[in-house]
Design the sequence.
């Protein structure tokens, strides 16, 4: 069994981005600029935005954050999106999700210009991804593909089973791995809450990607020997052994499943560290006009 180390992979990618940003600045051009819109005070969103700011500073990308109170109206958020769409100093931006209940997330996402949609959520970017055209890929699927690539995990002709069909992870990663590319060329089965005999399907996977949002759902009896297991989930559970009083676990029961897997991502330290790095990569592409020129 080999651990897929997301922290180390993310560190390497940040060093690569840092060198590329330095080259842009040395050529006399402005540093890439990533903006974020945060509405309300959701703790997880605040943590993510704080991590984004720190990572931008580490690689030389300009970071700006527009913090709005939870009572901000949908109209006001749309006006800010329009402002950022038309700000030539901003290469890409994100509107942090979730938004307060009174704001329509789809309406906000669709208002973002596709060429500035570094989160990869706009329907144009999702469609371009599905057609294997250049596109911004959303952060978690981007991170998963990058881990597979950098650990030289063969996907061609393999059976990939994805547990979870969310628009953020499961559905896009199933599309990415079925495309005629590398990594890709896999036969993909996408499972969800209505899938019958889910455990039996999971046992057929050469590569099992778990994004169900259910604590330690996948047990050793659901995994084929020497399968590659990628765990997207993250959950806090009480722990007397940790000073904080809790520990983090994933959607996979790591201790037992790791004994059967050939490769496995840990939680924490697997897919998670790749998300912000993926956002930085997309921002660099936006600054270079690599996707939309």
Sequence:
């Amino acid at each position: 069994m080999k651990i897929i180390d997301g922290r180390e992979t993310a560190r390497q990618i940040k060093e690569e981005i840092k060198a590329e940003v330095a080259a842009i600045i040395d050529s006399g051009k402005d540093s890439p600029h990533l903006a974020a819109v945060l509405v309300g005070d959701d703790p997880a969103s605040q943590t993510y935005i704080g991590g984004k700011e720190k990572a931008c500073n580490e690689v030389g990308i300009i970071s700006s954050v527009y913090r709005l109170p939870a009572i901000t109206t949908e109209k006001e958020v749309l006006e800010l999106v329009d402002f950022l769409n038309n700000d030539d100093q901003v290469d890409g931006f994100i509107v942090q999700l979730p938004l307060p209940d009174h704001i329509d997330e789809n309406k906000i996402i669709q208002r973002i210009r596709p060429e500035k949609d570094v989160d990869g959520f706009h329907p144009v970017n999702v469609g371009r991804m599905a057609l294997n055209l250049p596109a911004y890929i959303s952060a978690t699927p981007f991170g998963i593909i990058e881990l597979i690539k950098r650990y030289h995990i063969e996907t061609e002709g393999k059976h990939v089973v994805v547990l979870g069909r969310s628009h953020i992870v499961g559905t896009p990663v199933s599309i990415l791995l079925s495309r005629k590319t590398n990594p890709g060329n896999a036969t993909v089965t996408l499972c969800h809450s209505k899938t019958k005999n889910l455990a039996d399907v999971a046992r057929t996977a050469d590569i099992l990607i778990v994004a169900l949002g259910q604590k330690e759902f996948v047990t050793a009896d659901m995994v084929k020997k020497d399968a590659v297991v990628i765990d997207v989930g993250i959950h806090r559970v009480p722990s007397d052994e940790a000073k904080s009083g809790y520990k983090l676990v994933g959607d996979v029961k790591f201790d037992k499943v790791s004994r059967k897997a050939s490769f496995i991502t840990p939680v924490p330290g697997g897919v998670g560290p790749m998300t912000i790095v993926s956002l930085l990569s997309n921002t660099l592409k936006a600054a270079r006009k690599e996707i939309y020129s």
About this structure: Residues 28-113 form a domain with the Rossmann fold fold (CATH 3.40.50.10860).
